[in-house]
Amino acid sequence: MTNWTNWTDESWFDEATGRLVRPYAVTGGRTRPARDEFSLITLVITADPEVDTSRLEPEPAAILDLCRQRPLSVAEIAAYLDLPVSVVKILLGDLLDNAMIVVRTSAPMANGPDLSVLEAVIDGIRKL
Q1: What phi-psi label fits residue 18: left (phi over 0), alpha (psi between -120 and 50 degrees) or beta?
Q2: A single Pfam family, by name (predicted)?
Q3: Which member of 31, 52, 62, 128 has the greatest number of CB atoms within 10 A?
Q4: What is the pLDDT of residues 49-76, one digit of tens each?
Q5: Other CB atoms closer than 10 Å to residue 7's CB: what's the count?
Q6: Strand partners, 18
Q7: Which residues of the chain fall short of a pLDDT of 50?
Q8: Range 17-21, long-range pairs (CB < 8 A, 24+ positions)
């Protein structure tokens, strides 16, 4: 996979200190995502693999490029881009608002199997 740590203009990157642009500058000063639907395991894929990212800021463009071929989790995207998860969630919210990504969230625990059914299955197995 491509190393995205140097995807910005080299004048904004210093070998000793890293990126010279603070995360809040990447998000336009926002510190919290407008949406609360992104967890670390939410899967993200680019809605249109042919989308032109040349007019986008570097960070959203990098997210779309990363997620063109296969879905990635929010945690993976943050790791590949070397950005805090909170920043990635804000950027993903913007991309989702513009219908540039598709997300798949995990099922809530309320939709999981009934505990009594699981206990009955375990009891049945023990009786074997």
Answers
A1: left
A2: DUF742
A3: 62
A4: 999 999 999 999 999 999 999 999 999 9
A5: 16
A6: 14
A7: 1-8, 11-12, 14, 17, 20
A8: 18/82, 19/82
